[in-house]
Amino acid sequence: MALAWALPSSASPFISSYILQTRKQAYNFVSSRNSLQRFVTRSNFSDPSAGLLLAAKHAVDSYVKSGMVIGLGSGHASALAIQYLGQQLRVGAIKDITGIPTCVGSASEAAKAGIPLEQYNDGYMIDLAFDDADTMEEETLAAIIGRRKLQGDDSIIQEKIILEAADKLILIIKEKQFKGSVDGSIPVLIKSVNWLETAEEIDDLFLGDAEVWRRPAIGYAGPLGGDFPLVTKEGHNILDVIFTSPMESLVEVAKTLDQIDGVVEHGVIFRNPCTAIIASENGLQVVDNTFQMESSNL
């Protein structure tokens, strides 16, 4: 039996911060189907962006502790979390934080928020990382990142390295992007030399299920990437493998891509442990794919 709790219709959306501090207003259960741990809060928001703000604050309030090294993700929700983390640092609620930006945008937001920054180096110990997910598979919490247009020195490779190096990963996502079966594009980084052979092999493997387009630097996308194909800072091209129907398993697709000669990296991330914070107009759902129960911070 599901438990739902709602604020009165006259309540302000910003009272939602109080929800996260009150255990009695949370519902905690374990999914018998896939052993995912879930926490749910219910609230009504007149402002659609309030759900992402609530998710960003929850990521900071529940998981960030003083003295941590934190991977700072990209996207709207991550920017909100970075801004809120900066506020908490300024008032002394959290101290001695070091941020590791995953991209130019997160570095800029962190600098404006007053968060001390370091560049990631191999072997750097990261306690926690948070990031936006473009879409996520409900059963596994496998997610896709990197669909957005890259800016400046942004790198999907660097972003994934930082996320996978963290002891704990938090992914923030909107409810409509949290799906039983995932479709749409997966960005795939490939070697620019003999790129067409790699693209044709991927096309043959997913024939009838996906279209393979090379991402352009400017102008419109197309099978060949136009006259100005995108070249990443590492010297690679990006293929957008666009699945026109839902995938049976995002994890299996990722494993298949890993085995293709010429593929350097892709936008699928699958971690255990991983915590997903799902924002909707009705509140938050927090899903954890670890198999051991942990205490709720709600």
UniProtKB/TrEMBL annotation:
One of its GO terms (biological process) is pentose-phosphate shunt, non-oxidative branch. GO terms for molecular function: ribose-5-phosphate isomerase activity. Pathway: Carbohydrate degradation; pentose phosphate pathway; D-ribose 5-phosphate from D-ribulose 5-phosphate (non-oxidative stage): step 1/1. Belongs to the ribose 5-phosphate isomerase family. It comes from the Eukaryota. This is ribose-5-phosphate isomerase. Its EC number is 5.3.1.6. The lineage of its organism: Eukaryota, Viridiplantae, Streptophyta, Embryophyta, Tracheophyta. Coiled coil: none annotated. Keywords: Isomerase. Gene3D superfamilies: 3.30.70.260, 3.40.50.1360. It comes from Nicotiana tabacum (Common tobacco). InterPro entries: NagB/RpiA_transferase-like, Ribose-5P_isomerase, Ribose5P_isomerase_type_A.
